[in-house]
Amino acid sequence: MNLPVEVEYITDMEKVMGYGAMSMPAIVVNEKVVSMGRVLRAADVEKLLHGLGY
């Protein structure tokens, strides 16, 4: 997709819960939880990002 993004893998549960994610794994984009509790395929992540305007 060639997007200028920063990816961070967070394991600190306090920080994860600070985003409001109550189940793992979770994806946060621009400080907003956009997916949680599901393991997404690469195509699903791409579709999710396109839906968010990326």
Mind describing the biggest β-sheet?
2 strands, antiparallel
Uncertain runs are none
* Total of DSSP H or I helical runs spanning 4+ residues: 2
Adjacency order of strands in the biggest sheet: 1-2
Mean pLDDT: 90
Number of strands: 2
Determine the strand fraction and express it as a percent band: 15-25%
- Overall SS class: alpha+beta
Rg to the nearest angstrom?
11 Å
Fraction of residues in H or I helices:
25-40%
Amino- and carboxy-terminal Cα gap: 9 Å
Shape annotation: globular
Order of helices and strands: HEEH
Fold blueprint:
Elements: H1 13-18, E1 26-29, E2 32-36, H2 42-51
Compact summary:
This protein is of the alpha+beta class and about 55 residues long. The protein has helices at about 15-20, 40-50; strands spanning about 25-30, 30-35.
How would you characterize this protein structure?
- With 54 residues, this protein is α+β, with helices and mostly antiparallel strands.
- 30% of the residues lie in helices and 17% in strands.
- A hairpin with a 2-residue loop joins strand 1 (26-29) and strand 2.
- The longest helix has 10 residues, at 42-51.
- It is globular.
Task: Sum up the structure in keywords.
54 residues, alpha+beta, two-stranded antiparallel sheet, 30% helix, 17% strand
